Amino acid sequence: MRSQHIVGAFDAELQGLSRRIAAMGGMAERMVEEAATALRRGDLSLADHVIASDERLDAAQRELDETVVSLLARRQPLAGDLREIVAALRIGADLERVGDLAKNVAKRLGAVDAGERPRELQSGLDALAEAAQSQLKDVLDAYATRTADRLAPMRDRDREIDTVFTSLFGSLLEAMMNEPRTITASTHLLFCIKNFERIGDHATNIAETVFQMVTGHEMPADRPKADRTHSLSGAA
Amino acid sequence: MRSQHIVGAFDAELQGLSRRIAAMGGMAERMVEEAATALRRGDLSLADHVIASDERLDAAQRELDETVVSLLARRQPLAGDLREIVAALRIGADLERVGDLAKNVAKRLGAVDAGERPRELQSGLDALAEAAQSQLKDVLDAYATRTADRLAPMRDRDREIDTVFTSLFGSLLEAMMNEPRTITASTHLLFCIKNFERIGDHATNIAETVFQMVTGHEMPADRPKADRTHSLSGAA
């Protein structure tokens, strides 16, 4: 991928960008994992930790953006390098959103446990959170190793996440109707599962960015999401 | 703002970027307005129109991104121009998300009207949608006229939107508890109001980007959102 021209200092700067993304990725992954754990255990202090982490991730993204702007201003990167730089900008934005979504799960915990949860849905919640985490981990590995070959199945995995989400959405709605005392907790859990589903979307965005960065062309085929128009289940 | 150097063709390219943003802004505004109207009237065919529009907005964003990458690759923009170019990239991403959110409201309409709505909340919904629309309109005007002086109050307006959202969230929860037959519609309306609230957030992001682009420094003060940690009301 990397081409001739001004090697040395410039290469070091590009590597610096990669390291920033890796660090942000690590933070985002940890936040998602901790948010899921806090939700499972009802652990408010772990939730507070996630909320506090989000500020560090936001700061890391601002620094990344500044680094990119300064790099563009000082250098005149060739096509391949430019692709890498723009990719860093995009991945950074997706990771920042992943952190926001994890924070939002953490923020809801108090509200979830102010009411009574439909406990029978916990295993479904765990499965959803784990699927999102594992997808995020795999796209970050693909970025770190600059390999595109395992990225194409990411869309299928995202569709699986959407399916799990849709099924959980229906179960929560049912729980609300059958056990009205779970309405408050279920409502907030709806937003929590939506957040995990969105984390899967951002992982897929990152997969697309990495694919383009590594191969120079777009990830093949479109992304027909399982959200049938006007469906009863949760497209949002 | 604009400085000396290679004027002419380059200036034309920068103006082209502005026109693209203006066009995308117009599309996003229309989609938000139409989504709100479709929701109010229960108009499924208008909802379908919004859903179809989103593809055009997505395509417009991809073209904008390509234009920016090609511009950066061919020119070596000076600091002020670079700020403008990076701003276009950011605003384009925010507008694309606004379109997604409007589309998501449109997609939920069928599900909302599969059940019975809590009709007494319609005026609150309208107020929220209008507040989001008006904020979007004003930041796009500020971008078009390159004026920063009316941008600082945007954060206060965003907090007002958050307050309206939080109050509606509580009312929907209440409706679900008091009138269980509205549970399905209310649940989907929760996601609709969340989407309008998020549109307000993106308008505020755009306000911050425009402020930085026009003045060269960050919009003053932080943005303490009204989403109290662990609160019962809807932080997501």
TrEMBL record, chains A, B:
Subcellular location: Cytoplasm
PhoU domain location: 22-108, 128-210
Family annotation (InterPro entries): PhoU, PhoU-like_sf, PhoU_dom
Pfam family, one: PhoU
Keywords: Cytoplasm, Phosphate transport, Transport
Family designation: Belongs to the PhoU family.
UniProt subunit comment: Homodimer.
Stated role: Plays a role in the regulation of phosphate uptake.
PANTHER family, per the entry: PHOSPHATE-SPECIFIC TRANSPORT SYSTEM ACCESSORY PROTEIN PHOU (PTHR42930:SF3)
Protein name: Phosphate-specific transport system accessory protein PhoU
Lineage of source species: Bacteria, Pseudomonadati, Pseudomonadota, Alphaproteobacteria, Hyphomicrobiales
Gene that specifies this protein: phoU
